[in-house]
Amino acid sequence: MNIDYCPNCHQLPVPLSRETFEQIIREPHLKALCDQIAAGNLNLKRDLPAVCWQAAFGGERRSNKTARPSGLFALDIDHIDQPDTLFHTFEDRLEELGIYIVHKTPSTKGLRVVALCRPEHETIADNQAWLAKELNVEHDACTRDLARLSFLVPESYFYFYNPEVFSLETEVKELEKKVKEEVKEEAKEEKKVEAAKAPLAFRGIPYTDIVEKLIERTGGTPYEGERNNRLYLICRLLANITDRQADRLFQVCPRFGLSEAEVKACCESACKSARTEKLPYVLYKVLRDLGIDGSESATRPSAEEESKPALLPPSMPQPSHLPPLIKEFVVTAPDDFKPATAMCCLPICGFLGSRLRARYLDGDLQAPSFIVNIIAPAASGKGSLLRIPDICLEKIRAKDDEGREQEMEYQRQAKLNKNQKKQMEEPQPIVRDIPAKVSVAQLLKRMVQARGLHLISISPEADTLTNSNKSGMWAQKSDIYRVAQDADGGRYGQDYKSDASFSATCRMRYNLLTLGTPGAIARAYPDVEDGLITRCIMVELPSQFGKAMPVRKQFSEAQLKVVKERVDALMAVCQDAEGNVLPEYHLNLQWLNKGMGQWIEKQRVQAVRDEDYARDQFMRRAAQIGFRAGMVVAFLWGNLNRERKNYTLEFAVWVAESILHTLHSRYATKAQEQALQYEAPVARRYPSLFEAMSDVFSADDLQKAVRSHGIHSPLKSIIFRWTDNHLIEKQGESFVKLVK
Description:
By secondary structure, this protein is an alpha+beta fold.
């Protein structure tokens, strides 16, 4: 008897033996998990191990196509309050009916029966219908496919278990043949139904015509290496006329030779992209050219934006590729929250390991400084991310409380003894976890007292940053945040004559974690040009509209032990047992620099090719922050072998690409406009002149055009700039345009 099981519903099926089965159902963890599910926490079902009673898959993915019938079938009877009572009605017929297993379901409101297929019934569905009739019950008819999973339950949930189920020998050739025929027929019917539902046209124009025009408008059929970006761009455009439904978009979008999985991922991502009130201009023009009346206005972008490929969101590394501590938080987070969870760990770990240092590509020494902003609408569950600092900063906060108590005692004694000549010496405790609502003077004082260690602020609401910084204080705070993200923390200070204020100059090393709605984040970071935005990690949580409440798993004792060990290791490089600040802890990460350098070069070439100033600007900062993330991850791994180095580079590149994607999608237009004021190529300084020239022109032709356009720059300067920017080249006595 071949039976497979999945350790959880996300993993590949593997063979199930009697010994493994009995070991699983006797695990205390399984009992605790099912008790929570029975109490109403149904989202935990996905973490249960599950058996494929009806088939095995020979090491392949679980699907009806790869299924090999086991000769068993499972009957599910749902919505019964007393499953034990129902069991007793057929308890004396178990052998007669060929039943080998009976147990209640994880919710305790259902009964599952596993029995041997009868030779007189050709399919799983026929066997289920027969047994349901024998038991005089209504069953779940949706469980007829071979690949159906049955969640495992603890031993105490079983009413009957015959271990001979694992040693049965059955003849299933006819059943296998019949089931495969059914699968093929069902697939054909599904395709017919989907084809009938498919939106073949938009306002009378076939989608094939629209797609063809969009491909033409965005640069023609893409070459290998740019197919993903081009597909994502076209999918974002088509999402506006397919009701932002991923399944519809998947039916009409081009493939460009990519796999179905890649195309589906592009469609889903495109449907989640930001909506605009007006049609994108390139889509508007295509629809107008095809005869659809332009009743809807459109937002017209610049010429570059019409054809520039959008950046595709990067995929997060697998949990097995993550280091201890980060992995523990990620695997216990809901799926939509996993990337944000990993990013939230960075300012916390950087703060705890404040003395870590590594030399970057440019030769500057980098400190683990991070500003992370989590962006999500109200009531989206983003507050659950605060569990990370609550667990990791427990010891730091206890020390901070002791320091604040010393300060309060000093203030009390100072008031009591204010008339005495000799006053108490003011204590200088290290208080590092400070509220986001803090004055500049107090922030500077805490920084000096920290003796070179990082401070951190955690703001559950982004509006706290702006509401507490009125009357010009935000400008000072913005400067501090920006300077604190310099390589090893920039120098900042103030010098006032009044004794009532605090005067000092020091290096600012400061981490910040902020949660806020899109509007609140926009108010906190209104200006692209001041440089603060490019020093931040912006993380957008996926929309939770219409989704079930996200449930975060609880830590096991083993997971909590790992987290605390890594926290202690990070703290151990900063202070000794007496609280003295230790020397800097240097890491040699030349191998990481090599990998990040390759990523930077790839982005630079793409930016030059697209004339994308925003990408060029954002990717430089993103790479630096990605390197810092790699520094933290390298330390968390401990002993680094080749595999762990590869995982560290993978994480660093993912952080850099995530930053680049988010900044580019939110701020590219503003950054592009500002960059073009200073760095635009000459062809853009003289747009009408360059466009006025024919594909091949002479110096005399250019001279005439210069005069007619009223341009006073020397002819030689114009020719030099155009040639230097690879816009033209000289051939004999003439010039030929390289850019049409």
